[in-house]
Structures are given as C-alpha cells and as structure tokens.
Design goal:
Blueprint lengths: L1 H8 L17 E7 L14 H14 L5 E7 L3 E8 L2 H9 L12 H4 L4
Parallel strand pairs: 1-2
Antiparallel strand pairs: 2-3
C-alpha cells in the first residue's frame, strides 16, 4: 500500500514526442568547390573560398523551412552535410571546410568539352 502512495505522489505521466508539422519548403543542395583554385585572391583582401563560405552562410541564414545540404568537391566529391533543417550545424560544418580536404583537381572544364 505504501508503494502505491509513493507512486501516486510521484505523479507519473506519459509524454508523446510525436508531432506533425505542415510547412512549405524546398530541398537545396549547395555545391562548393574546394580545389586549390579557390585560394585565388580575386576578392581583395580575401580569397574565393572565404567569400564563397561567407555568401553561403548568408544564404542559409535567409532561409526558413527549406532543407539544405552541402556537397564539397575537388578531384572527387562528398557530402559534407545531408539535407537538414538544422541550420546551426550546417553553418558549423560549412565553416570547417578547408581547401585541401580532398585531393586537388577539378575536372569540370574537361567534362564540358564537345565530343
């Protein structure tokens, strides 16, 4: 009997964490070149990679309800961040990107040559 009294005083309850939200948004993937050419200082006093990351951060901060992902590429490509609504982690992962994370070389120009 004493145990039932303690359990009643503890006020046990159940919490449901399932929630459904209805929003409108689009899926956006940002593709960022991290090859050595991104170190060129076209945007004095900063280089291309700094400016690209800065502009991508501004873009992310201006979004709402859009899932955004990040792909980085050089000689190869990989997903830095899959589609997400967590803009904080996305901008954190974006800030950690460095030229040289992947073997250098971009083959975009070669791929666009006529056959």
């Amino acid at each position: 009997m004493f145990l039932f009294l303690i359990a009643a005083l503890a006020r046990p309850s159940t919490v449901s964490s399932d929630r459904e939200y209805q929003t409108n948004g689009v899926d956006i993937m940002i593709a960022l070149d991290i090859s050595g050419s991104m170190l060129a200082e076209d945007f004095q006093p900063e280089n291309r990679i700094f400016v690209a990351k800065q502009e991508a951060t501004k873009f992310i901060q201006g979004r709402e309800n859009d899932r955004i992902g990040l792909v980085v590429f050089s000689k190869k490509a990989f997903t830095q961040c899959p589609l997400t609504l967590d803009y904080r982690i996305l901008t954190e992962l974006l800030s950690e990107i460095r030229v040289g994370m992947i073997a250098d070389g971009t083959a975009i120009a070669w791929a666009s040559r006529p056959l």
